[in-house]
Amino acid sequence: MGSKKILIIDDNPDFLFTTETFLKRNGFTTLTAQDGKKGVEMAQKEHPDLVLLDVMMETLYSGFEVCKRIKTDPDLK
Fold this sequence. Notes:
Rossmann fold; flat; 77 residues; three-stranded parallel sheet; 3 strands
């Protein structure tokens, strides 16, 4: 079985770097997106096993909007 794929969606580059580094060192495959729109697109393309999401993002799609879009996408269930 391959490593689990984790998508990190956050508008804070320091948080993205730190979290991605930690997860990679612990054997996970990571994907990152710095805004909600890119995060939704990446989730649809890559089908991650887990999404770590900043719900307080102030980007085109808020964190809550990203969550709603991912949860309602039948291809991501």
